[in-house]
Specification:
This protein is of the alpha/beta class and 203 residues long. The chain has a single domain, classed as Rossmann fold (3-Layer(aba) Sandwich). Helices cover 44% and strands 15% of the residues. The chain contains nine helices and six strands; from the N terminus they run H-H-E-E-H-E-H-H-E-H-E-H-E-H-H. It has a six-stranded mixed β-sheet with strand order 2-1-3-4-6-5, with helices on both faces. The chain is globular and about 50 Å long.
Length: 203
């Protein structure tokens, strides 16, 4: 557990804190295996990429979830139990083709987990789209890595077992509401209080 939480912490420190999906992406990366993939603006990343090798551009707005679907189709054909994670920011999620991508992932039972930056207006639009399919949708606090862990684990395990995609709607609070209580700071408190690390190790 210590190694897992430390890895998650270093991913959190590496990814830009102003990006709404950075905690969810960090948690997902810590959970992925070598054969799994995460889709980013620079292409597909190995699930076991080291934190210091992680490109800061991973969560840029130009990332394309269609890339994740293509990877999931390929992995579904050539390998069992592999998962693709697709971070989707609020800008990209509102593009016209995104609901169609969700529907395609669901209809093909693809092993993909979408981490979508929550947008209340867009979420209501999704509710109104009967053609969206039966993709499982779960809301999660995108600012709390520990609370994200069971939600993302559920999506990954579901995909790994061949039970199709999950859309995790990552609810982001604004900067004023968060204050200095960042996901990395919260996790650091847990690591220190549980004796997994010293403050000096987390600098």
């Amino acid at each position: 557990m210590r190694d897992f939480l430390l890895k998650m912490y270093y991913y959190l420190k590496r990814l830009p804190a102003e990006k709404g999906l950075h905690a969810a992406a960090a948690v997902a990366l810590a959970m992925l295996g070598e054969e799994d993939r995460m889709a980013g603006s620079d292409g597909l990343l190995s699930g076991c990429i080291r934190p210091e090798e992680l490109p800061c551009s991973l969560l840029d707005e130009k990332m394309n979830p269609a890339l994740a679907l293509g990877a999931a189709m390929a992995l579904q054909t050539i390998a069992d139990g592999c998962v693709v994670i697709a971070p989707v920011d609020a800008v990209r999620a509102r593009e016209e083709d995104f609901p169609s991508l969700l529907q395609l992932a669901d209809s093909m039972n693809l092993p993909v987990v979408f981490l979508m930056e929550y947008d209340e207006e867009f979420a209501e639009d999704l509710e109104a789209q009967a053609a969206l399919g039966d993709i499982e949708r779960i809301q999660a606090d995108s600012q709390d890595a520990m609370r994200l862990m069971p939600v993302i684990r559920l999506g990954i395990d579901k995909a790994r077992e061949g039970d199709g995609p999950t859309l995790i709607e990552c609810v982001c609070s604004d900067a004023e509401e968060r204050g200095a209580d960042t996901p990395a700071a919260r996790l650091a408190d847990v690591l220190i209080s549980e004796g997994f690390a010293t403050p000096e190790e987390l600098l």
